[in-house]
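Quick check before the chapter quiz. The format below is the same one you will see on the exam, so make sure you can read both the input and the output lines.
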Amino acid sequence: MLMDQNIDKKIYEVGWEVINSSQFDNLKILRNNIYKIITEEFNYNEQNPEIGLNNFHKILSELSDTDLNQKKVNVIQKISSDNSLVDLIFESFAKEIEEMLGKDLLVQKTINLVIQAPKDLNPTIPHRDAPPNSYFELVLWIPLVDCKDTKSMYTIDMSSTKNALDELEKNPDDWDSFINKFKDKKNYPNVKFGQALFFLPYIYHGSDTNNTNETRFSLNIRFKALFSPSGKKFPLHFFRLFKVSELTKLALNKIKDEGLE
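Here is the expected output.
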């Protein structure tokens, strides 16, 4: 079982950190519930989630791109509509989330699911979420299988992100120069099932072609402090109220009682 740990401040220095869950059983329940949805949607017969997810690419050749995309959309809709799955994610990393964001929280409405088969020719280009997202969000990337090297995603630390942005400002039309600025600065965190990659939305990140012989299955979701700036996106389109502190509950009730809504 993975042991509990406090955030060791690495995330504040480089923009990302791998965090162990202190509630590993919650993640096993999370994976089992999501795997049940996947097996039903894809008519997949493997009973062991770890074996089934790592070898999921073996059934993908039977599906057209259109069918695969529709089934992925169906799975995402089903897992996002089950609030108990978000509760399991939060409870698995509650201490670290609250340490960074406090007890008044919004959570992203959609739990994103990413499936990257070996040799998939559609990796994610380097990008950052903020802007337009809020700089005050926290992104959790949660693998459902062990991920390392190109089976993992990559991050670009804050210093290299700044250098790349400086290059882009000098040569806004030169994509190659922009990419070359950090092509050797990619970090491929080793993130096992039972851990999550926490990262800040304003560092560059992405994925390369998965050159392993296993499929990558991962979730990503964002938490945000309720009273922090919202960026350029209307927060309630993308987030829902998740939890509030006792002080906030008291204040909201007082505002309602005094007709100050």
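If your answer matched, good. The radius of gyration is 19 Å.
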